[in-house]
Predict the structure.
Amino acid sequence: MPKARRKAATEYDVIIIGGGPAGLALACSLHDTPLRLCVIEKQPVEQIAQAAPDGRDIALTHTSKTLLAEMGVYAHIPAEEISPIKQAHVVNGTSERALRFDAKTDGHGELGYLVPNHFIRRATYQSVKGQKNLTIITGQDVQAVQTNEQTASLSLADGRTLQAKLIVAADGRFSPSRKMMGIPTSMRDFGRTVIVARLSHTKPHDNTAFECFHYGRTLAILPMTKGQSSAVITLSSHETAAVMEQSPDDFAHDVQKRFGNKLGTMKLAGKRHAYPLVATYADRFYGKRYALVGDAAVGMHPVTAHGYNFGLYGQNVLAREIKKTLSLGLDIGSNDVLSAYNRQHRHATLPLFLGTNAIVGLFTDDRPLAKAIRGAIIRAGNFITPVKSLITHQLTATSLTG
Amino acid sequence: MTQAPMPTKKSASISSDEIARFSAQSEDWWLADGDFAPLHKLNPVRLAYVRDQAVERLKISKASPYNIFSGLKLLDVGCGGGLLAEPMARLGAKVTGIDASEAGIKAARAHARQSGLEISYQATSVEEVAAKGKQYDVVTAMEIVEHVADMNAFSRALADCLHPGGLLVASTLNRTAKSYAMGIVAAEYILRWVPRGTHQWKKFVRPSELMRALEQHGLRVVDATGVVYNPLHQTFSLDPRDLSVNYMVAFVKD
């Protein structure tokens, strides 16, 4: 019996694995090029077009807002879902002292903007839907990735083979394609889980974000629209099940108590979601004709809310390098392009990645010395202006490095 | 009966040991980390310079940056494996690449086919192209002047190949103590960047000599820049104040 003839590979210039926010943002950033783009997404199309609420809230920096506006994404986010942060307080334990960040001292009207993740995902999809140089393949898993000096190729679950000059992986912090390409990655499992939930409350939040380092748990209260707030609770993973199973009223009451009743009576206003905390950082952000973007490159601890922002900056740097190379008629998949991206994006992310992990370590440590040190940091922070302005700058990140 | 070797068609500007030297390496032209690695590293800087000079001097619209040379006729003299010709073709130019080395031209043709690009490659000299009365909007002569035997004949032919208003960009190595150290000792021996014997310092050309040679044939200097190497980042960049080693000069035919 004759073997079925293998169909020739479909050719693209850039194949992006993953239709999440980073992958789609890259496709969007390359819309004004003659490059033939393809995005491959495991989930069915409805799940990216109408992404369901997942409890995550993204704190957009000013830079991210500008990038999203340039890409045409920002206009697709419903205005009534964008909540400005005007102040941020960091509180140690039950102490009344707080490290305060104020939008006024920062020179901006806001420290940043909170937007629920699913609205960003939907808006990004809106922007690339119908993009002329883009093919989106949904409901397909990538089975194998191969690259060499001349070309990169991958095979899909349905047997199709696709070829490109460059494959970009935006397939998440546990990126399966990164594994296939043999790129080592540092992982730090904090042994903790984060529970997120939306709450309504009787007192106004005044657009102030709180980060409270309690003994054993940390609690962030983020000011959202409609007068509601999001609670972000970080706790030891073994406690998770009990908290998830609390009745809505018990849960809300517990948050209210731990928050010192600052926002009055609280009520649960949606589903609780739990996410285990693992931070990842790839040893390099590229291989031969292969690049990592988004969480596949840097999977941040969510405490500084930089994960999404870094993903957005990274794809912007990569898109810029690709366009620069394209405008010289050179090979967009070459090592020169990818190493330039790698250098710039590591430079932009590594200090904060390591810093965040160290802070998280310090602030979730219950030993007396750690408690004393963080108390000192918080007290010093209010007096030492340069320290604060550095932290504020990191929070708002108005300039892109590199 | 012994047969005398067939004399190949020769022009005054072409030196035969130079051809043999480059033909021997033609297979390696396109290996980004092979013998011609420095040319690959140099390439983005040269391409950007040629592009930007062309845009400025020929008043090209920047509306479609990825097809900016659409309709432009370009002659690359000393095209080697096509390192400059291919990108220019990708940007829309109708490119003719010429090189004295037959083997080099074969390698260039094979690579262009692989890249799916239409480039006219010919093993010929610029004098022969000029003799046929062919003229181009842009002529490039990169790292070739220092290999030329008759500078005057070569310069006349370059000028003849340009349309009035056309642009010539020539790059070469300056004959200074620094270029001796950098270009030959460092590049050929220490860094093993280019095969030994690629450059002969005595044949290097001072900017004044290059400019005078071409001005005699009716071209006008419109820009000159040095190309400097940063060993820390291993990259090249333009420096208009330092022409002491590698440099490029742009000319316009009035």
In short: Residues 16-253 of chain B form a domain with the Rossmann fold fold (CATH 3.40.50.150). The interface with chain A takes residues 32, 41, 43-44, 47-48, 51, 65-68, 86-91, 114 of chain B (CB under 8 Å).
